[in-house]
Amino acid sequence: MTAIDIEQLKGIVIQAAERELLPRFMSGERREKRDGSVITEADTAMQSRLGAELAAHWPDIPLLGEEMDESSQRSLLQDTAEGLWCVDPLDGTSNFAAGIPFFAVSVALLREGRSQLGVVYDPVRRECFWAEQGRGAWCDGQRLAARAANLSLAQTVALIDFKRLDPALARRLAEQPPYSSQRSFGSVALDWCWIAAGRSHIYLHGKQRLWDYAAGSLILAEAGGHAVTLDGETVFLADIAPRSAVAACDGELFREWCRWLEISLTDD
């Protein structure tokens, strides 16, 4: 099985982002895909560059990218035993196109139906988050580790994406917010990393795709965080169907948040 040098991978991701994303930021160029989501020249240029760079170093590992057609994505997911790169070349495209400096590139290595390593790079802040299964999570040189928030749910800052939630749940959150304040920044990959880093306390997203969460969910898990879907299932699934995500780094807050959302946990 092909070995991956995480430092080499980080270098590839960082250099690609700084050469393909930053020079195109604030250009204003955008168009819409069939599903109505935004795409820019930076998305396609970044995916092409990453595809070429990763293939040059690890030619036996194919790449699944957000900007591929769905049939190709599904075909690639049929067999991840030997490894598969899962890439979101520009997570937060709407932010990028609007000139909002909150976006990232996300790269995960999938093997045997799970994420084994992940890198998320924020080129604006020059922050690199990464994790390896069983070896912890890091932001640059600092290890990310779960720590007690010592807050009640009512005191928390929540990252909530309202757009993709069931209307009834969105209305309940708006009318009876169980947290102190709420944010939505527009990059799923960075949402996971910021929760892992303790920059917000609880998280909720209604529909995210594999390339959005493959690296970030591993980073949170390796930081000691917790996550389930709104149905109480494991978030990660080697499939392109959208998944919901409920998360927190602090275990007690996570359980309290799930109780408010009426999610049954197996250890409750």
List key phrases describing it:
268 residues, Fructose-1,6-Bisphosphatase, Chain A, domain 1, D-Maltodextrin-Binding Protein, domain 2, 2 domains, five-stranded mixed β-sheet
What would your notes on this structure say?
By secondary structure, the chain is an alpha+beta fold. It folds into 2 domains: 6-144, Fructose-1,6-Bisphosphatase, subunit A, domain 1 (Fructose-1,6-Bisphosphatase, Chain A, domain 1); 153-260, D-Maltodextrin-Binding Protein, domain 2 (3-Layer(aba) Sandwich), CATH 3.40.190. The chain contains 8 helices and 14 strands. The chain has helices spanning 6-20, 41-57, 70-76, 93-98, 167-175, 188-196, 210-222, 251-260, and strands spanning 31-32, 38-39, 63-65, 84-91, 104-111, 114-122, 127-132, 136-139, 142-144, 157-161, 181-183, 202-208, 226-228, 243-248. It has a 7-stranded mixed sheet, with helices on both faces. α1 runs antiparallel to α2 and α6 packs parallel to α7. The N and C termini lie far apart (39 Å). The mean pLDDT is 94.
The top level CATH class name of the largest domain = Alpha Beta
Helix amount, in percent? 25-40%
- Which structural class matches the secondary elements? alpha+beta
What is the 3D form? globular
Mean pLDDT across the residues is 94
In CATH, what is the homologous superfamily of the largest domain?
Answer: Fructose-1,6-Bisphosphatase, subunit A, domain 1
Report low-confidence residues grouped into runs of 5 or more: none
Q: Give the tally of β-strands.
A: 14
Radius of gyration: 18 Å
How would you write the strand order of the largest sheet?
3-4-5-6-7-8-9
